[in-house]
């Protein structure tokens, strides 16, 4: 050890004296002697019910946890103070090493010594708190892996694989720094948000594959934790792992009751990796079943409402518009007719892969149907989106597609619309983009056309247009469950296609947003599918409002309650149909078909 640094470090440790070391060992003196004795015998032990000594491994013991808490306190002081120099950092490592040596943690003491030697010659360098934390990662591995580093190594076979976005939240910077350092070879992208409230607010925008929440004793009643878990539960499937230091069964059960998918006592990286990877794989399977187009591997149209909800939130909160482009392959029918449908499939797969490769991670590619794709460009103006699409057009036209021994080249046309009004429904933007796409195709193809805005009062939300298109149905789905809305919307589209009709489908997450929408104000004759129990306003309250104002709506009430009195109550209030959950889809389809038919009568 550098003598100057060692001398300064010794003085630093003496100054800590009664304030740090005594706090670390504030438990009974004889218990401490017994603890040291047990460690010298080869492990941390406790007495079992039958009086025999049982070994405890894998859980952090009390002195280690106390020392770790002191490191956390020092990090928080650094984080809120000015940068520190190399001498101060070396003093800190020296103090940690001395304390670790006293309580028999030789691996931690040795690592602290190694870090001090590494700092030789860097005494004048200024360190931020984050840089110091990164420097500490090898030391933290000794704490969390309890001297069993070999078992915490991630197998090389797992270092290549599907990428995943992991959200780390909670005030545990030391554990999160250890996780990021230990899993740096794994193809996962970590985002750390200390505030549970901010994590809950950012969840939809970040779209993580898994959330890891660090929960300390006394935080189970934190309302922000409850909100975070509730919002995660509103997604089709978003796994949440709670990491905690206490070992009690009560805490573990509490985590499961709140909605966590897994509750782990502060694990080593290998265990955390395996358990989180298992949940991510489960999520991928569910996503693949519900939201992924089988042929092209991009999202299917069911995913569009989720994308729009996220981008509309960005527009409402930050004023950041997005752009929707509806793409269509030019002369695709000729490819199928001349080369066969397998060649056509190869072209579709090529375009999907090309779009994913040449757009940003925040953008979304969706197969809309047939040879049509939606590219949704997040936080992008119309002029920027046009430049992107022109680049994509040029690059894709130069691509060669091998199909059945032949080399093909294709082009696409696009209709572009800037989504800058959060009150508009998804179908409004799709219809504008479709009109622009039609203009591009009519102009000869391989073109980009920008959508012309409809005049005020002539949108699909206004009564004037509704009255001129008698064959266009209007359906509003009001339910706080996003997955239910998505499935019912798919059923509506199926019925619409069967009848050769057109429909405007609107989705609302609660009754209040429905009543405040332009759709409701228009008074257009429609079918309203209404959930019985929702936040902000109960479904029966919404139904009362509809009937009091004599709106021309056919109302189907959905509910989990199967009590005959509840059903009778809703029917007496004016519901036209009443369907209980879980749905019998054939029954739901038949009842919905009848209500749609009544719109024409």
From TrEMBL:
Start and end residues of each Response regulatory domain: 165-281, 474-596
Protein name in UniProt: Response regulator receiver modulated diguanylate cyclase
Superkingdom classification of source: Bacteria
Keyword Disulfide bond annotated: no
Protein's organism: Geobacillus thermoleovorans CCB_US3_UF5
Residues modified as 4-aspartylphosphate: 531
SMART domains: GGDEF, REC
InterPro entries, alphabetized: CheY-like_superfamily, Diguanylate_Cyclase, GGDEF_dom, Nucleotide_cyclase, Rev_trsase/Diguanyl_cyclase, Sig_transdc_resp-reg_receiver
GGDEF domain segment(s): 320-453
Any one Pfam family match given in the protein's UniProt record, by short name: GGDEF
